[in-house]
Amino acid sequence: MKYLLLFFSCLAFIASNAQSLQLYYDFRHSLDPKRNAKNHPTLSFEYFKGGDSGSFLFKAEADFVGEKNNIGKFYTKVSHSFRFWKPKIFLQLEYSGGLGIAEPGSYGFYLTNAFSLGVGHPFQWKGAWLNAYTCYTFSNFKKPSHDALFSFYWWKGFFNYKLEFSGDFSIWTRNKNRGDSFTMNEQGKRFSFFGEPQLWYNVRRNLSVGSKINLYYHVLITENTFQLYPTAAIKYKL
Description:
2 helices, mainly beta, disordered N terminus, 13-stranded antiparallel beta sheet, Porin
């Protein structure tokens, strides 16, 4: 119950400031039934504010993967870049984390807190808005992990912004041994990749329809398998 109260408190904050609300329907069970018990909707709230002195992003995402489509996973990310000097190199701060809500008779899990510090560079190229940053990341496992993170964001409008192509991808490492009984015999680092390219068509005013493709490598599973799961989506800009 306390996790649900936390979730709806976040929604109340975001709804008053958000740039967009997005609803996705994920087809991963249809494409990969052995690894995914069901297709599911995902609700995402994003607030972004940018400027010459920096930018701020708040993202909260809930997967309705629980019994009777209850919330089964919640993820949040806060990212802030800023500068008070002339060169267009920004100091980058980032936090991400979340939780999984247990089914009756099962157990919950954490999306472990990760704190990142690094530098970023936003720029434009052929009408596209781009941002790249690299960070040192501390992940708060039982056996903490110290790692590198690289992220890249893009956005470009076509046909007088009737069509938008946007998204991001991240590459990072984490310790295989996280200090728990499941990983205690493992050694070294694991390379991971996550991407979410999106294509949106503006239907009218603030309403768009489109698709986001979720790309995973060593994120959901430890097997050396690349996972690609498309969605059908609707977005409302506030």
